[in-house]
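User: Predict the structure for this protein chain, please.
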Amino acid sequence: MSVSTASPVLRTLAVSKSYGKRLAVDRLDLEVGKAELFGFLGPNGAGKTTTIRMALGLIAPTNGSVEVLGREVRSHRAEVLPKVGALVESPALYGYLSGRDNLRVFGDLLGGVPNKRIDEVLEIVSLKGRERDRVKTYSMGMKQRLGLAVALLNDPDLLILDEPANGLDPAGIVEMRDLLRGLAASGKTVFISSHVLSEVQQICTRVAIINHGRLVRVATVADLVQAPGEFEVKVDSPADLAAVLRLQPWARNARAEDGVVVTTAPDGGGRELIKFLVQNGHEPDYVSRRQHDLEDVFLSLTGPEEKG
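Assistant: Here is the predicted structure, written as structure tokens:
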């Protein structure tokens, strides 16, 4: 499969993990390139958390291997893991300490982090001005951003984020979205596991979907959500237009949905469709290729289970 660089930042090579007779991850092959915003999706119990734990060197694969920056994680932990930052759900922060003191404590666990770096990550996550306040006074969004600041202390090449939008209100989700986009733009690889599929659709360049431990699909978000051959047409009288279109051999399934007409085109492209509309007295306000929601695609590939 193609990625954005010849040397993947994160790669799983036929990796499997068994717990007794239960196969949690089954011969998973993934490649994530430099500066990608990569979404990792699957129903609850699909093997996402197990994969993340293997990528972080917390558990060993039963078979196969996980590589970070070209090195096998388990045998090169000391070399690889300092280049990885992780945020797993709600960060374990010290509420009675300030944001800055939290970063200082976690920095000490990394062997010491200069004050300059603490200032830099506070700036990156937009907590300047609140860094001396106790964390127990922070909103959920601020706590998530502080958790991300902890993950950024060692200036990692790879960020592995499990549910970065966990518990955030709409404003917090927008803040996190902008922050992650900025990190990818700066050259960091961001690997996201999330329930919030609408956010994954907006920020990720590619996604992998797994189910029952197996890779179901890996593709760009644009390719996944593209509805092949269908267009949405906005006109004044969608029901009338749909009736006209259904008389055409190339548009038998034309239909009015939510105030627009969904139809195929004479040649598969929009130009001939627009020409037909104008010639038949239905000048459109717009014609655009139809897209599915990532949630629809996800459910079609995994079944109507709870998303994870």
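DSSP finds eleven helices and 14 strands in the chain.
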